[in-house]
Structure formats: structure tokens, C-alpha cells
Amino acid sequence: MLLDQETLKFVFGMKLRGLRLDKGLSLKDLAKKTGLSPSYLNEIEKGKKSPKTEKILMLAEALGEKYEDLISLELKRDLNLVQSLLDKKFLTGVPFELFGVPAATVFELLAEKPKKMRALVGTILEIARAHNIHIDDFYFALLRSYIDMHDNYFPSLEEAAKKSSAEYKIHWNAKPEAIKAALVKALEKNQIQVTEQDLAEISPDLKELLYFCADRSKKFYLSNKIEISEQIFILARELGFKKLQLKTRPQSSLVSNLDSFDQLFNHFSASYFASSILIPEDEIVQDLKILFEAAEWSQVSFENLLAKYPCSYESFFHRMTQILPKHFGLRHLFFLRYEYDLKYKKYEVVRELHLANPEGPYSVKGNEHYCSRWLIHRLTKQQLQDNSKTSLGVQRSAYPHSNNEFLILSAAYARPHFQQTVTSICIGLLVDGNLEKKIKWLSSPKIAAQTVGETCERCAIKDCSDRAVPLDSQLDPERFDRIFKKLQTMQ
Question: Please, what is the angle between helix 80-87 and helix 103-112, to 10°?
Fold first, then answer.
């Protein structure tokens, strides 16, 4: 296991402190045995100082330990919580500074208050085990929290994209083939060789990948089995890695089994860069204003807007989550990507984003049945029945438990490279006074309204003809409210 220097200092300090306390020595006692000052020893134990070899030898002799044991990464049994966090890449993979908490503070708390921290973090780990939550899930949750902190708008990335577009003459409104050629040329100028081919020909194990890097990221292999809109976005993201100087990154389109949060964060940053190049900020702001200020909802206008930009529908929908909070003041929104597996006939939320924490639909672990009244669910069925390339729609969805209502814009489509799935995406905007001011056609009778739930197992909507399975009383979100209300009547 490779650890950074800060973590190595922390591990060594914890081991030293534990051994000193086991021997019944104070810092002054150990200072007398070694000739090192108590303050210096305290700095070592807190992970702030890293002693040289000769001083480690002095410490090992004073404590009656072998040098090899003292510098090993194995921690004693009562520090198994820290060992578990190291094994799970928690301490090494999370940039605590991004969230305003210096890593040294976390290390110090673990070192100084191991029992209290064990109770807190141990509880979190137990919940993770019970719900089959892995470190990747934790990294994605961290990223969503960071995005929420910034309303999913990053001026430095917008500016970097504008500069690169001008530098490499990448014109978003050119023909797709011309944009692709400009991106390939830009990558070549940055010493990246692009090879487009069927990746299954390289190895059958790679057939599901969209791209991968080789030779220390100098060679970039792009699948020729995916649509040009996806190829363009992938190439633009690759340019983002280079121009933003992001060296830590996933090697392929399989963004999982991550070594650190930095890999995911850099992937997000490069993706944001790509969106900014292909869907320029000023252009989409004007387009959305025109769409929202129209007297009536027009699906044709929305289709034309989606077709205007050289990227996938998912990229456009996700770009809206970056633009709407900043330029329209619409902070309360969510984005979902929902996939239907044709083989297993199963729906699954595979990507989600929630800004300002609106109480709407969230992904659920396990085998629960997502509400079939969701617009993306209906559009998926429509796409399967009509065998059309894309199905678009709009709906107002009300969640009775939270008393929230959302305007939902959604699309469902098939992707040639993934023949066993149908992809659906949606953006949900909280219906409030602000949205009513921004969108003139919000109350149009042309827009269907529907009461929806989260999953059938958690939904208490009575007489629902679309229900796949009965309500699970243990998952009923209203059961505790009923208990408390009943208790109040008995006072």
C-alpha cells in the first residue's frame, strides 16, 4: 500500500505514542532516554514531524522495539480502527482540506481521542458494511457534497475552457467531424497520440470500454463503436486533463475501484471543462432564456435546442445543472440517470446529483422498485415500444410525503455501444415562487401533473394502479409520524 508522506508521519506518530503509553512512559521520560526534547517527541506523535533514521533507531532502543517493527505500517490492535481506515483508503484518499478540515486535524483527533473517534467512525463503517457501501460510493458522495457547496459552478474551469477553445480553434457550432478533428489535433500538440478502433480487437476484455490510456497517458485509444457526440466529449475531456494539468486520473471509461478521491475529482473537473467547450456558457444561457420565456411549452423547441450542441443529451442535461443555479437562481434541483437492463428487466439509478438538498427521488440500494410514475420510467417504456431513437417529455411531479413538486424535463434513448440497456435522464426543478417567475409556461395545461413516490416499497399513495409491489410497513416514511401523532393524543 503506497501512502503519502503526511500519512506515513501520522502512522509512525500513532505507533510511537501507543508504544510509549504501553511502557508507562511520559514524554519527559522518553526524552531522557533518547536525548530528544519532549516538544519534538510531541510533534512526532502528532504526525507533524518525521524523524530521521538515526533518531528512529534511538527511539526503538529506548522502547525495546525492533527498528523494522517501528517503521512498519502494521498498527497495534487497539488502533484497528485507524488500520481499517488505511486499508479502505479513507485517510489516504480523501482531501479533507477541500471541506475546510486540515488533514492534520483529523489525524490528531484519531491520535489523541482514539476511543471516542473509534465510536464515531466505527459506527459509520458499520453502516457502510450493512448497506454494502464501498469507498467508491463514499468518494462519489463526497464529490456531490463538494459540488453542492459551490452550486455546481466553477469560474476557473469556465475560463480555462474558453482559453483552450480560442487557442486550438475549437468551434462548438462547427460540424461534428470538424470539432473532432480539432480536438485530435489539439491533443497531438500536447503529445497525446489518438488511435480510434474497435477496442475488442485489442482484447475481448476491453470491449465494454469507451476509451483507455496507455504508455503513461501518451497514447489514447478511443472506441469507434460509439456515436460521434460521445467521442467528441471524451476527446474534449482528455484535453481538459492536459490543460488543467491533472495527472491523477482514471485510466479508462471505467470510473471505479479508485485509489483516491483525487482521481474522481480530476475526472469531474476535466468533464466540466469538456462541457464548457462544447456548450459555451454565454450561448446556453441565452438559449435557456428563450426556452423559459416562451408563452407555451414546445417539445419541438426543446428538441431543436438539444440538437444544437455537439454532445449527448446527458451532457446537455448535466450542463443545465451548472448553468441554472448561477444564471437563473434555480438552486433547488436534481439530476438523475436511470438505466433499464433489457436482460434482467430491471431499472437502476446509476448517476445522481442533488443541489440544495431538495427532497426528491434518490437512488436506493437493494432490489426495491422505483416508482413507475416517474417520467423517465414512462419514457423508457415508450422508447422500447416505439423502438424510436429518442423519447422526450415534461411533467410536474408531486411528492406527497415532502410536499414538494418538481418540473421534470426528461429524455430516454438507446446507446449503440450498450445494446442491453436503455438510458433515461432527467432534471428536476423545485416548483416555487422563483421558478414561477423564471418559466412562463410552468402552469400550462399541456404539462401533465402526476403524484409520484420514490419506490413502491416506500410509497404510501393509496389505490395506485401502477404499483409493482405492496408498501413495506418497515419502509413507510410516514409510520413514525403516525406514532408520534397518536402519542400526542394520549397526553
Answer: 150
| CA 371/CA 478 separation, integer angstroms | 17
Beta-strand ranges (E) seen in 248-376 are 333-341, 346-355
Q: Is the CA virtual torsion 89, 95, 99, 103 positive or negative?
A: positive
Chain segment 326-340, per-residue pLDDT in tens? 999 999 999 999 999
Three-class secondary structure of residue 476 per DSSP: coil
**Distance, CA of 319 to CA of 281 (rounded, Å):** 9
- Cell triple for 453: 413516490
Closest CA to 256 of 424, 128, 87, 134: 134
User: Does an H or E element contain 388, and which?
Assistant: none
Query: Over the stretch 368-403, which tens digit does the pLDDT of each residue have?
Result: 889 989 999 889 988 888 776 788 999 999 988 788
Residues 271 and 294 in one domain: no
- Expressed as residue numbers, the domain containing 64 is 5-130
Q: Are residues 392 and 431 in the same domain?
A: yes
d(CA 121, CA 291): 48
Which stretches of 23-64 are DSSP H helices? 27-34, 38-45, 53-63
Are 290 and 411 within one domain? yes
DSSP 98: G
Q: Are strands 211-214 and 333-341 parallel, antiparallel or unpaired?
A: unpaired
Instruction: State the number of CA atoms in the 13 A half-sphere of 461 facing the CB.
Output: 21
3-state secondary structure of 418: strand
Q: How far apart are CA 20 and CA 16, in angstroms?
A: 6
